[in-house]
Amino acid sequence: MGGLNMDRGHKDLNEIVALIAKLPKTQKFREDPDFKALCLYLKSELQEDYMPVAINNMSKRISSYLMTHSYSSPKELVNLQKELLKLNTKQNSLRHLPFLFNIY
């Protein structure tokens, strides 16, 4: 179950890092304090030891941002959120696998 712990070289994690790198760097977003704070938060979460929790935290933070900035949110942020939600769903389903197969 290597996907559950998501080590630093995991392909899903690499995709998240790539999506964060694609977030816009235009002046409009560089000058928006909320967007800057969000980007710093996302980068700091990538340093966490346990990625499933970090992914959940990033997803929650992006959701909050999207709710308050829905009209000005970049599509790259929406794409990142979609990917995080997919990973979150995958992690939640993996968490229950040992019980389904009586592996203790």
From TrEMBL:
One example of a Gene Ontology biological process annotation: bacteriocin immunity
Pfam family, one: EntA_Immun
Domain of life: Bacteria
InterPro entries: LciA_Immunity-like (IPR015046), Ta0600-like_sf (IPR023130)
Protein name: Bacteriocin immunity protein
